[in-house]
Amino acid sequence: MNWSEFFAMKGYALYVWGSYGMALLVFIVEIALVRHKRKITLQQLRLMRDAGVEE
Amino acid sequence: MFGLLGLVVRRDLVLAMRRRADVLTTLIFFIMVVSLFPLGVGPEPEMLRKMAPGVVWVAALLSSMLSLGRMFSADYQDGTLEQMLLVPQSLSVLVLGKILAHWMVSGLPLVLMAPVLGLQFDMTAQALGVLVLGLLLGTPILSMIGAVGAALTLGLRGGGVLVSLLVLPLCIPVLIFGSGAVEAAISGMNYASHLALLAAILLLALVFTPWVTAQALRISME
Amino acid sequence: MLAINWFKYSAPTTFYGLAGRLVPWFAGASVILFVAGLYIGFFVAPTDAVQSEAYRIMFIHVPASILSMFIYLVMAGYAALGLIFNTRLSSMMATALAPTGALFTFIALWSGALWGKPMWGAWWVWDARLTSELILLFLYLGFISLHASIDDPRRADRAAALLAIVGSVNVPIIYFSVKWWNTLHQGATIKFSGTSMHVAMQQALFTMLLACWAYAVAMALLRVRSIILERERTTQWVQDLPEVRS
Question: What's the topology of domain C14-245?
């Protein structure tokens, strides 16, 4: 298996890897954003609960 | 039903006439946008002739979007809309009346102004005719689709831009068939099918949008 | 039929737990399917006679665009359920699906542009399908913007639902008109060298489609959990959750 030939994609490397690269980037960003949202939501819930307890 | 319709239309027209500036600003915007294109792309007559149908239609689309906020906002703010939701008569008919009045004030002037603007682009008489007919069929559709957007965004901040964002994608078929009809007329091909499709969309909109808009108003007012 | 009380899971309380248990399965499945699909697509499927290696973009472009349309319909379906039956969870699922759908639309557009450039020489060729895809992105963004602009959650859910339904009804009309417009202006269509695709290409395509679908389900379930927590924050069951107590 000639890896450098594989990655060159007969000259279309930019387009092929550009497409898959963007898809991967989008997936990573989406997963990160969803996990971040969960973290923030839990934080706010704890703040709310603490504020209630202090009364 | 027609009595109620006439009542609503007349009321809205009277109110609109008191704020004549609003009517004129839509028209001026239309004229300005159409005039901007030659300034942007150059005065070459051949290119302008090709661009003309699209330019006039896009400008009509944008001008219609501009005035949408006015459809329900005044009544919403002074409480009239709330009363309208409570009357025993059909809300759909009331809404249709408001849409009709809105079109007469915002859409019809565009239809009447279009031939003048078409001449700026050196359009033939036949092309102008098809342009006017297309706009006559299309601008009511724009008002109707716009009414749904206006009803959904009642009282929201971000107002005008949000409505346009929601409504413009839905208006694309009207744009395609309307400008397509004029282009067909210019190149001597059959434009009747384009206009027929516009008429079909108009009928569809007439049947569905008043009711959908009424539902949207109820959702926004709860 | 399985002895599951489906209605039990239509309440946010129980669905929260179910979603949490399902996410790892769908996430794992999507990883496996992606690896399998990419392997078949890049190492088993042969070079195309007409499009050389560039056609391999298809294995992400086509699944992404299929999913973008599928998710829109599912989203509109959930939104309609929420509007008609007044079920909170349905509306929450619609809201959870929207960003994933929009992102798939973006991937479809990006990969479509990158496919178009070597094939037709331009970054954007106004192909009927790509143009419809662009309009679909606008519809997604409209849904998300409208929902985000309304403070009251119930009004937001119902207004966005109405918009989604109107959008779905319009999609066939929009697609038809764009197709018409495209043939009028002699646009390009993405075609292959032969009338049928090589078996390996079909297999790769299908595997990647399943991979994207599993990913979308995982994302939607994950997102809806945060939405449920936010909306139900004043309830006792949320306060009692282990992740909140810790």
Answer: Four Helix Bundle (Hemerythrin (Met), subunit A) (1.20.120)
Q: Is the CB of C141 inside 8 Å of chain B's CB atoms? A: yes
pLDDT band with cut points at 50, 70 and 90 for residue B154: very high
- Residues C26, C224 contacting (CB under 8 angstroms): no
Residue that has been written with the tokens 């542009």 in this structure: C113
Q: Specify the DSSP class assigned to residue C239.
A: H
Specify the DSSP class assigned to residue A36.
H
Reported as a pLDDT band with limits 50, 70 and 90, residue C5 is low
Angle between the N-to-C axes of helices C128-149 and C153-184, in degrees from 0 to 180, rounded to the nearest 10:
160
Structural domain boundaries in chain A: 3-53
DSSP states of C177-209: HHHHHHHHTT------SSSS--HHHHHHHHHHH
Task: Grade residue C134 by pLDDT with cuts at 50, 70 and 90.
Answer: very high
* CA distance between the termini of chain A: 69
Provide the 3-class DSSP secondary structure of residue C52.
strand
Q: What is the pLDDT of residues C59-95, one digit of tens each?
A: 999 999 999 999 999 999 999 999 999 999 999 999 9
**CA angle, C105 as apex, C99 and C110 as ends, to 5°?**
125
Quick one: pLDDT at residue C7?
62
Which of C23, C110, C224 to mutate: most A Cβ within 10 Å?
C110
How wide is the angle at C-alpha B37 spanned by C-alphas B195 and B139, nearest 5°? 30
Selecting from B162, B173, B215 the residue whose C-beta is nearest the C-beta of C162 gives B215
Our answer on whether A and B touch (3+ beta-carbon pairs < 8 Å) is no
Contacts of C155 in chain B (CB under 8 A): 219-220, 222
Distance of CA B42 to the CA centre of its chain: 28
The alpha carbon of B196 is separated from its chain's Cα centroid by a whole number of angstroms, namely 18
